[in-house]
UniProtKB/TrEMBL annotation:
<feature type="transmembrane region" description="Helical">
    <location>
        <begin position="62"/>
        <end position="83"/>
    </location>
</feature>
<protein>
    <recommendedName>
        <fullName>histidine kinase</fullName>
        <ecNumber>2.7.13.3</ecNumber>
    </recommendedName>
</protein>
<dbReference type="InterPro" id="IPR036890">
    <property type="entry name" value="HATPase_C_sf"/>
</dbReference>
<dbReference type="Pfam" id="PF00512">
    <property type="entry name" value="HisKA"/>
</dbReference>
<keyword id="KW-0597">Phosphoprotein</keyword>
<keyword id="KW-0418">Kinase</keyword>
<dbReference type="GO" id="GO:0000155">
    <property type="term" value="F:phosphorelay sensor kinase activity"/>
</dbReference>
<dbReference type="GO" id="GO:0005886">
    <property type="term" value="C:plasma membrane"/>
</dbReference>
<keyword id="KW-0812">Transmembrane</keyword>
<dbReference type="InterPro" id="IPR003661">
    <property type="entry name" value="HisK_dim/P_dom"/>
</dbReference>
<dbReference type="InterPro" id="IPR050398">
    <property type="entry name" value="HssS/ArlS-like"/>
</dbReference>
<dbReference type="InterPro" id="IPR005467">
    <property type="entry name" value="His_kinase_dom"/>
</dbReference>
<dbReference type="Pfam" id="PF02518">
    <property type="entry name" value="HATPase_c"/>
</dbReference>
<feature type="domain" description="HAMP">
    <location>
        <begin position="88"/>
        <end position="140"/>
    </location>
</feature>
<keyword id="KW-0067">ATP-binding</keyword>
<dbReference type="InterPro" id="IPR003594">
    <property type="entry name" value="HATPase_dom"/>
</dbReference>
<dbReference type="InterPro" id="IPR004358">
    <property type="entry name" value="Sig_transdc_His_kin-like_C"/>
</dbReference>
Length: 383
């Protein structure tokens, strides 16, 4: 640490003061011993076992110190001075660190304390840097959460306001009897009913999203056959796929894959993925679900050969309220929560999901463990 001129002056003064105190102490000891020798010569000489190795005594007075004793006193003085100056130097280092901390606390979180202290002080500085970094990360995370909450409120308000405006508008027409005949009345009520159902779907998806985002959400774990589950889902979507002139099938080399998971939540995931494939893969002809086992996990891929997803959208697919089709049309513009819910459910099971897309194929791939951890099973037992 580089000392200021004032600090160097303080160290020099400290050194001189320490030397003065040591000399006074030595002189006081010399006088006291001489006095004791004069008053109690017999006693002192009877207990005196150092002899001439330390001092020379003539009559009842000390006449000289031996070179050996002078060296000992000098060493003691040097050690004492060094200890005092080192202690004061560490205090100066600590004052520097405290001053730097005050500067950081004023909001200069990017500032770093110099690490040229050495020894324990350097470890303290490194610990302070770790603490500051973790505090900054916590503050950034808090800001991100607050921003995320604001975005959530904004998106929910936007998506609810649109159908609500339509509902109020059509019900207003009915309330004011501004319709020509019963057919027009039924048209207004049907439109209001349709918009109300859209709001219901949004509210349900929002509730499901907030529920599965909590890491403490219990899993109702049961053992089942993944291949059989996917084949049943493919059969359920077969009619809808036929209406869109698409085929849907399960592709696997396994007759059965036994695993543990919350089937109700996983069905929600597959429903979202297959529904997206039917909506956004409408230019394609086929949806196929691949299932394979690798070690202690099962890998499931929901694929379609429709139009590819733009590369810029792939990284945002699992963000809540994100839609590839920004127009939010009634036909394909869902709540924007489906994939976010799917990702959260997969994460609850200890797995992960990602997407890839090119001119030939769009794939949603998820990795799920075959067995759930004991603590998750225990949570499910208590639910």
């Amino acid at each position: 640490m580089k000392l200021t001129r004032k600090e160097k002056s303080k160290l020099i003064i400290e050194g001189f003061i320490t030397i003065g105190l040591i000399l006074i102490l030595y002189y006081a000891a010399f006088v006291i011993f001489n006095r004791m020798l004069a008053d109690f010569p017999g006693i002192i000489r009877g207990f005196w076992f150092f002899g001439d190795a330390i001092i020379s005594i003539q009559g009842n007075q000390i006449i000289s110190l031996t070179p050996f004793f002078i060296i000992i006193l000098t060493i003691v003085a040097v050690v004492t001075i060094h200890w005092r100056l080192k202690r004061r130097y560490k205090q100066m280092q600590l004052n520097h660190i405290i001053s730097e901390l005050h500067y950081i606390a004023e909001g200069h979180y990017e500032h770093r304390i110099t690490k040229d202290f050495g020894g324990d002080m350097e470890k303290i500085v490194e610990s302070i840097h770790v603490l500051v970094d973790s505090t900054v990360q916590a503050m950034e995370e808090e800001r991100r959460i607050e921003q995320s909450k604001d975005e959530l409120i904004t998106n929910v308000s936007h998506d609810i306001r649109t159908p609500l405006t339509s509902i109020i508008g059509y019900l207003g027409l009915i309330e004011e009897r501004r319709y020509q005949n019963e057919e027009e009345l039924l048209k207004y009520t049907h439109t209001a009913y349709t918009k109300a159902k859209q709001m219901k779907v949004l509210v349900e998806d929002l509730f499901e999203y907030t529920k599965v985002r909590q890491t403490t959400t219990p899993l109702n774990v049961s053992e089942f056959d993944m291949v059989q589950l996917l084949e049943q889902l493919a059969a359920d979507f077969e009619l809808e796929a036929g209406k869109r002139h698409m085929e849907i099938e399960v592709v696997t080399s396994y007759e059965a894959i036994q695993m543990e998971a919350d089937t109700e939540k996983l069905v929600r995931v597959f429903n979202n993925l297959i529904s997206n494939a039917l909506k956004y893969g409408k230019d394609g002809k086929k949806i196929f679900i691949e299932v394979q086992k690798a070690g202690k996990e099962v890998i499931i891929s929901v694929n379609n050969d429709g139009s590819p997803i733009p590369q810029k959208s792939l990284d945002q697919l699992f963000d809540r309220f994100y839609r590839v089709e920004e127009s939010r049309s009634q036909e394909t513009g869902g709540t924007g929560l489906g994939l976010a819910i799917a990702q959260s459910i997969v994460a609850l099971h200890g797995g992960y999901i990602y997407a890839s897309s090119d001119a030939h194929l769009t794939r949603f791939v998820m990795h799920l463990p075959l067995k759930q951890l004991t603590e998750k099973n225990n949570k499910a037992d208590f639910s």
